From TrEMBL:
<protein>
    <recommendedName>
        <fullName>Thiamine-monophosphate kinase</fullName>
        <ecNumber>2.7.4.16</ecNumber>
    </recommendedName>
</protein>
<dbReference type="InterPro" id="IPR016188">
    <property type="entry name" value="PurM-like_N"/>
</dbReference>
<feature type="binding site">
    <location>
        <position position="86"/>
    </location>
    <ligand>
        <name>Mg(2+) 2</name>
    </ligand>
</feature>
<feature type="binding site">
    <location>
        <position position="290"/>
    </location>
    <ligand>
        <name>substrate</name>
    </ligand>
</feature>
<comment type="function">
    <text>Catalyzes the ATP-dependent phosphorylation of thiamine-monophosphate (TMP) to form thiamine-pyrophosphate (TPP), the active form of vitamin B1.</text>
</comment>
<keyword id="KW-0067">ATP-binding</keyword>
<keyword id="KW-0418">Kinase</keyword>
<feature type="domain" description="PurM-like N-terminal">
    <location>
        <begin position="39"/>
        <end position="151"/>
    </location>
</feature>
<keyword id="KW-0479">Metal-binding</keyword>
<keyword id="KW-0808">Transferase</keyword>
<dbReference type="GO" id="GO:0009229">
    <property type="term" value="P:thiamine diphosphate biosynthetic process"/>
</dbReference>
<feature type="binding site">
    <location>
        <position position="160"/>
    </location>
    <ligand>
        <name>ATP</name>
    </ligand>
</feature>
<feature type="binding site">
    <location>
        <position position="239"/>
    </location>
    <ligand>
        <name>ATP</name>
    </ligand>
</feature>
<feature type="binding site">
    <location>
        <position position="134"/>
    </location>
    <ligand>
        <name>Mg(2+) 1</name>
    </ligand>
</feature>
<feature type="binding site">
    <location>
        <position position="116"/>
    </location>
    <ligand>
        <name>ATP</name>
    </ligand>
</feature>
<dbReference type="GO" id="GO:0005524">
    <property type="term" value="F:ATP binding"/>
</dbReference>
<feature type="binding site">
    <location>
        <position position="41"/>
    </location>
    <ligand>
        <name>Mg(2+) 4</name>
    </ligand>
</feature>
Length: 347
């Protein structure tokens, strides 16, 4: 468990403008569409004849992350990754981000530098330019808000509303891993809270921890779909859990769905964690949030093409709306999908 209040440089020695200058001094713009970045009243972006997509997420300490076990560099990385993931879910290419941050007094300059190291690493990995933001102080916790901006050809944009009857339902990677990681971290935190002399035991769980603390946006899947000339009929990134997110597609597309439990990809470590906690791993894969995998539909005649894409699985198909939204279990029982959704506001 970490201590973010360790001694370091007081931010007050730089002041707001000094801090912004310090944090943004190494930024080099990569894209020709980034006409103007940090330093004026607003950034200037030019996508010429493409469509622009814009998406924002807000991360609040105590609601979306816990600094007891979240390394600041990972947090910065995650803030960017979850936003570019939304851009990929539109089948668009992220190009710019803005980062707004509210920091409490207990943060040192070194702590903020850590957050920015994660932000910059993610900006490099996802090839996006940091073109602006806002910086202020917070009386309570840390708050990070990122806006991601991207481009796409109009005919390539993919909405939640485009799924058609008989389309195949596909998902990238595996599901439930980020939730399994969260369960582990919360368990170890409870043990530590009860006895601070106990050191957390996280060995053998590297994969699910990484999925929770440093999630990946599926840039690779976006690129492979493009290479395969596949424009999904609908797409969403799995942030609230497979059930909820698939139901968003069904709602918006006015269709039903049938997915098969045995086809839902689940990693071995997720299985193992569910077992340790005496839980059903399908609960993790259906309802666990924050996987940031891409869930999409393609026409039936794309079956061969989509099967060839590494790390993509077909898990079911779209049905008439009147048939409802169903999961077929391993025992061949049909269960209606529930939108349990990972929504911190409801907790
Ligand atoms: P304003 O008063 O017009 O909001 P600021 O002083 O807040 O201007 O910001 C000055 C410049 O620094 C702007 O270009 C803004 O986008 C950028 N900026 C401010 N905070 C951040 C940050 N946390 N990360 C990146 N850029 C930032
Ligand atoms: Mg400002």
């Amino acid at each position: 468990m970490q201590d973010n209040k360790a001694k370091g440089t007081d931010i007050a020695t730089l002041g707001e403008f000094g801090l912004i200058k310090h944090l943004t001094k190494n930024i080099k713009l990569k894209h020709s569409s980034s006409n103007l970045g940090v330093g004026d009243d607003a950034a200037v972006i030019d996508y010429q004849n493409k469509k622009t997509v814009v998406t924002t997420d807000l991360l609040l300490e105590g609601i979306h992350f816990d600094l007891m076990y979240t390394p600041l560099k990972h947090l910065g990385y995650k803030a960017i990754a979850v936003n570019v993931s939304d851009v990929y879910a539109m089948n668009a290419c992220p190009k710019q981000v803005t980062v707004s941050i509210a920091i409490s007094k207990r943060f040192t300059l070194e702590a903020v530098e850590e957050i920015y190291a994660g932000i910059q690493l993610a900006c490099e990995n996802y090839e996006v330019d940091l073109v602006g933001g806002d910086t202020t102080s917070s009386l309570t916790g840390l708050c990070i808000s990122v806006t991601a901006i991207g481009e796409a050809d109009e005919k390539e944009l993919t909405y939640r509303s485009g799924a058609k009857v008989n389309d195949l339902i596909c998902v990238s990677g595996n599901l439930g891993a980020a939730y399994a990681g969260l369960q582990l971290l919360e368990r170890e935190k409870r043990i530590y809270d009860n006895n601070p002399n106990m050191q957390p035991d996280l060995t053998g769980h590297d994969y699910i921890l990484e999925r929770q603390l440093k999630p990946k946006a599926r840039k690779d899947i976006y690129e492979r779909l493009k290479e395969a000339n596949i424009v999904p009929t609908s797409m969403i990134d799995v942030s609230d859990g497979l059930s909820s997110d698939l139901m968003h597609i069904c709602d918006k597309s006015v269709v039903g769905c049938q997915i098969y439990e045995e086809k839902i990809p689940v990693d071995f470590e997720t299985h193992k964690m569910a077992e340790e906690l005496n839980m059903n791993y399908s609960t993790f894969s259906l309802n666990g949030g924050e996987d940031y995998e891409l869930l999409f539909t393609v026409p039936l005649d794309k079956f061969d093409a989509v099967e060839k894409i590494e790390d993509v699985k077909v898990i079911g198909h779209i049905t008439e709306a009147s048939k409802g939204n169903y999961l077929v279990t391993r025992d061949n029982v049909e269960i209606e999908l529930q939108a349990q959704g990972w929504n911190p506001i409801k907790e």
